[in-house]
Specification:
Mean pLDDT: 80
Helix content: 10-25%
Strand order of the largest sheet: 11-10-9-12
Number of helices: 7
Length: 302
């Protein structure tokens, strides 16, 4: 040991691990363990002579440059681009999304071909309408927003609402590994006075004073169907993050007549505690196969 003082030894093993040992005068030892990395590959544009840029070939047009760039993008390289990191983060963030259980209603969406054909027919009809052309030219054309909203609710609206619900964590915090597309549109509005109402959209702010009384809830339903309406707050429980407060629960709703259903839990106004920030209050509509006996589920009115 005395002969090894002040001497440094470097040992290289076949396993590509390098160990460095150093013995100091205090007869102490230290070791550093690291892994030998693979050598880097050729750098992009390393064959370009920066001193002679005049010799570079000109693309002469943007179309030709774009074609060459697309061909180069399809080649495999040893380095990672920005898209690689974004795709990796997205796959990690949404890992297991394909395994989610769809608990939504069965729905047969019209074929995309028929939708495009109908849209082209409508566009052609509008182009051949001289009154629409004249109103558009004079800036007096009025767009029927109710018809636009109706078409949106039938075609793209449910999917966009589903993405909004995913953004706010509705499925994650209420249904865990389940999801659904909201094909049945809920229309909720609070009555402020005889003339004004406060509509409930996907993410707008409603104050507790505006939600004192039960809202008016409407939706389209087949005759003879039964539904259950739930109004819940997943952010209101101050002791258990996995629990929620139910503010309204109505079962066995015939058709769309909410007032005729069984009120298992009478409407209880929201009461977010001061300093707890914004709370998510969620209306959820469930469809029943048959009538359910809720006699053991009734809750007293607070």
């Amino acid at each position: 040991m005395a002969a090894s003082i002040g001497r440094r030894m470097r040992l290289l093993f076949n396993t590509s691990w390098v160990v460095s040992l150093r013995f100091r005068r205090s007869v102490g030892t230290s070791a550093v363990l690291f892994k030998r990395a693979d050598p880097l590959g050729p750098m992009p544009n390393e064959n370009i002579d920066a001193q002679n840029l005049e010799s570079l070939e000109n693309y002469r047009s943007y179309v030709r440059y774009l074609k060459v760039a697309e061909q180069e993008a399809t080649k495999s390289h040893w380095w990672k681009t920005y898209k690689h990191y974004i795709a990796q983060d997205s796959s990690e963030s949404f890992a297991g999304t394909d395994d989610k259980v769809d608990i939504g209603l069965l729905y047969q969406r019209p074929s995309r071909k028929k939708e495009v054909k109908e849209r082209n027919r409508q566009v052609k009809e509008n182009h051949s309408n001289p009154e629409l052309e004249r109103a558009a030219r004079h800036r007096t054309l009025l767009i029927p927003l109710d018809e636009v909203k109706t078409d949106w609710e039938k075609i793209n609206g449910p999917y966009q609402i589903q993405r909004v619900a995913e953004h706010y964590g509705i499925y994650q915090h209420l249904f865990h590994e389940a999801t659904f597309v909201p094909w049945v549109m809920l229309r909720v509005e609070y009555s402020l006075d005889e003339e004004n109402v406060m509509p409930v959209h996907r993410g707008n702010v409603v104050t507790p004073s505006e939600a004192v009384s039960a809202p008016r809830v409407t939706f389209e339903a087949e005759e003879g169907s039964l539904w259950t309406l739930l109004f819940t707050n997943p952010d209101g429980h101050l002791r258990d993050n996995e629990s929620e407060y139910i503010h309204w629960l109505v079962g066995n709703i015939p058709g769309n007549m909410v007032e005729s259903g069984d009120h298992l839990c009478r409407y209880f106004p929201p009461f977010p505690a001061k300093g707890t920030g914004y709370h998510r209050f969620i209306f959820i509509l469930f469809k029943q196969d048959t009538k359910i006996d809720f006699k053991d589920e009734y809750r007293p009115y607070p």
